[in-house]
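Lab notebook: predicted structure, single chain.

Context: the supervisor wants predicted structures on file for every construct in the current expression panel, including those that have not yet been purified. This is the next one on the list. No modifications to the sequence; it matches the entry in the shared construct table.
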Amino acid sequence: MLKTVAAGFGIALVAACTHVAPAPFGYLTTHGQQRVWIVRADNDSVVEVHSPRALNDTLMGFVDGHYAEFGRRNIKQLRARQTAPVRTAILLAGVTGAGVVAYTQIFTSGNGAGIPSGYGECGCDFDDVCC
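Prediction complete. Output recorded below exactly as produced.
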């Protein structure tokens, strides 16, 4: 159960930490990317490019497993995965707040000993048959 919760949190954290957004052409030289998306200038089609590399004014990479080159003037827009610090901060704040609420509900309700309310209220010992 704990592994499932941790895996779900990890997936949510990764999804919140990045997003795909327009990027300048030089972004590829400073940030290593596994894939980028380009909008072609001639027909507005979107092409997914794997292992992209930028050299001068040419984008090189693999499209559907085949090597391809695109000149800068043939690219209307370049989109790449980028960090999203605001969404990450919101996610962490939400998880922290939920943890605080869960902690206070579990450990401050009932008799204050970490036992939920409703246990031990019928006035019996553990040896007796209770309510």
